[in-house]
Amino acid sequence: MSQLSQPSADAARPRPDLDDPLWGPHWRGIREHELRFQQCDACGTLRWPPAPLCPNCLEPAHGWTACQPEGTIWSVAIYEHAYHPGFRAQLPYGVVLVGLDCGINYISRICPDDLDRVAPDQRVTGVFVEVEPGLVLLEFELVRSSSADGAANKDQA
Ligand SMILES: [Zn+2]
User: What global pTM score does this model have?
Assistant: First the structure.
């Protein structure tokens, strides 16, 4: 690798296009702290990623429906190299593929506090984070087990 190609550490991170005709409604939902997916008007199939036609019945008509950002981790990747200069300052960071309870497989970040204990099969819930002024993203955090919560809260009443 050439040293000449090293990007600067303060490069801007890529931002979603809130006005994109296909992706905009999803990103505007995230900004409003709601996880929205296309839903086919004809058969009800959720579409992810957004698409002009339903992958199940080829119907173009659709609305947008909100889903709970809760699910189970299928896989984890820890990034120690920035493949875009705008992510360099955040290294290392974790990316998880989450099987949402609504049936969508969704890729996003794991909260930095959970980086050292994240693993497949763990339950996660979404957290909407304003990572920069005007830029809200959905991250996931591990769901603490209710038995552990109960033990932690015991005798505090
Ligand atoms: Zn359909």
Answer: 0.84
How far does the centroid of ligand 1 lie from the alpha carbon of residue 56, in Å?
A: 5
Q: Is residue 1 part of a domain?
A: no
Domain count, the chain: 2
**Distance from the alpha carbon of residue 98 to the mean position of ligand 1, in angstroms:** 23
**Do 52 and 129 share a domain, yes or no?**
no
Determine the pLDDT at residue 146: 66
**Tens digit of each residue's pLDDT (9 = 90 or more) over 107-140:** 999 999 999 999 999 999 999 999 888 899 999 9
Q: How many CA atoms lie within 13 A of 85 on its CB side?
A: 8
Q: Are 50 and 98 in the same domain?
A: no
Residue span of the structural domain in which 150 resides: 69-157
Q: How many angstroms separate the alpha carbon of residue 156 from the centre of ligand 1?
A: 51
